[in-house]
Write a structure and sequence with these properties.
- The protein has about 80 residues and is an alpha+beta fold.
- It has three helices and four strands; from the N terminus they run βαββαβα.
- It has one domain: Alpha-Beta Plaits (2-Layer Sandwich), CATH 3.30.70.20.
- Strand 2 and strand 3 form a beta hairpin.
- The radius of gyration is 10 Å and the shape is globular.
- It binds iron/sulfur cluster (SF4) (2 copies).
């Protein structure tokens, strides 16, 4: 159950600095999480200043798809 970032993200970079497995990638509009890399440690969820990260059980289908697709084509953050 990977974490997912929604479009409230302000691209501050905090989550990328704390992820132990470098699951964050930066798209044009927001940070996204590679669901195949995230180990569901939960560390990023509490640190996001705008509460843009949640577990995928609580995320919208659109956000889940966007994270999965964009993380494969955008550079690591
Ligand atoms: S839940 Fe943990 S492993 Fe997954 S993206 Fe956040 S910090 Fe990285
Ligand atoms: S900590 Fe939150 S606002 Fe900052 S880049 Fe990550 S998801 Fe976006």
């Amino acid at each position: 159950m990977p974490s997912v970032i929604n479009d409230s993200c302000i691209k501050c970079g905090t989550c990328a600095g704390i992820c132990p497995v470098s699951a964050m990638h930066l798209s044009d509009s927001q940070m996204v999480i590679d669901p195949d890399t995230c180990i569901d440690c939960g560390a990023c969820i509490a640190e996001c200043p705008v509460s843009a990260i949640c577990n995928d059980a609580e995320a919208t289908p659109e956000a889940i798809s966007f994270n999965a697709e964009q993380s494969k084509i955008c550079p690591s953050a």
